[in-house]
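Problem 12. The chain below contains 262 residues. Write out its predicted structure in token notation.
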Amino acid sequence: MPELYELVTKYRPEVVWSDGDWEASPEYWNSTEFLAWLYNERLSEGCNICEVERAAKQVACCQEMCELEWIAHHFIAGKLFPHKWENCMTIDKKSWGYRRNAVLSEYYTIEDLINTLAETISCGGNLLMNIGPTHDGMIAPVYEDRLRNMGKWLQVNGEAIYATKPWIYQKDTVSAGIWYTASKKTKAVYAIMLKWPEDNMLKLGAPQTSDYTRVLMLGSQIPVKWYRSTRGIAIDLPIFTPASMPCQWAWVIKMINLVNMQ
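Solution.
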């Protein structure tokens, strides 16, 4: 319990994830004691912890606190859920911990991880992406590579992930591999494009444009030309050299002032 107190008071997490509820009773884990303290001392002070995973679900009086739906790991929704949910996954396909004998093919690629992030966020979920450190707390190079590349991608495209909400469409109605999010604060819709079209023309069926619609690409200052089509919008993507691409994986189109914003 002292460790949990320190974690909550010092770092103020939004979610406390406890595991192993099937192994023993709430009394064994002292779940009731911790939840009572959390509710009386922290939530009353405006602490932003919205849910205590699993431990709270064991205790009948605390089940109302569990607003986040826990989903089996590597879960892909593919559709919008009516409640909050989390996709829990680990970069190592076979383990949540460190494996000395793991081979490269047993780790998800950065393309896999970004694709999973885009789909999860577009469907209203939160992505928990786990790595397994070594026994002495070191992060293996393969994990560092994935995390740093994810950070680079978010530096360019984080606007389409953070402070967003699901749009009225989660994926496009015409082109495959397109996932949508919408800004909570502005009139912007984001189309996350997992593959670059071979003809440089992106065709989207979900957006309805107006005379005031603007189209941009995150990470690029090059003007983006677009046209109304019979099935939605056709976007003439900018021509980039490999060195001038905004990012290497999954590009984001930002559309402002669509007719069907909501």
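Discussion. The longest strand covers residues 84-90. Students who got a different answer should revisit the alignment rule from Section 12.3.
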